[in-house]
Amino acid sequence: MKNILKIQQFSMGNQSSFFEELKQIIIDYFKSNVKLYKLNAYEKVAKVMAILFSSIIITILIFFLLFFLSISAGFYFATIFKSNALGFLMIFGFYVILLIVVIIFRKRILEKFITDKVIEQLFEEGENE
């Protein structure tokens, strides 16, 4: 009878340690998953920030390119019209028309393009790795 009680106590002890180990494995698994999700989120944020930063640099460079090109075009048209005011007014008119077109089509083209690019970068599944 004592042997049966010892066996039952031994198997109950094993069973409780098994559940304790299983509980610890499950806790470790969830902690690891949380860390993995955090790392993936940090990677995606870093990727979007890198794209944003490079886009800002490219935009600044394009701005200066267009700025000096506009000044050159203003002087070119000034020599054609023999008036600095008319030459630069023509460039001003071009930019006003361009601004109106951008305002009209900003939701359909510009905002959709930017939103699609950000979402594409966020949900990219490591194709570049």
Condensed summary:
The chain has 129 residues and is an all-alpha fold. The protein contains 2 helices and no strands.
Write the layout of secondary structure elements.
Blueprint: H1 2-81, H2 84-122
Helix pairs in contact: 1-2
Task: Describe the 3D structure.
- By secondary structure, the protein is mainly α.
- It has one domain.
- Helix content is 92%, strand content 0%.
- It contains two helices and no strands.
- It has helices spanning 2-81, 84-122.
- Helix 1 (2-81) packs antiparallel against helix 2.
User: Based on helices, strands and strand pairing, what is the structural class?
Assistant: mainly alpha
Could you give the count of β-strands? 0
Shape assignment: rod-shaped
- In DSSP terms, counting alpha (H) and pi (I) runs of 4 or more, how many helices? 2
- Assembly classification: single chain
Distance between the termini: 65 Å
Largest sheet: none
Q: What Rg is obtained from the alpha carbons, in whole angstroms? A: 33 Å
Give the mean pLDDT: 84
Give the tags.
single chain; 129 residues; mainly alpha; 0% strand; disordered N terminus
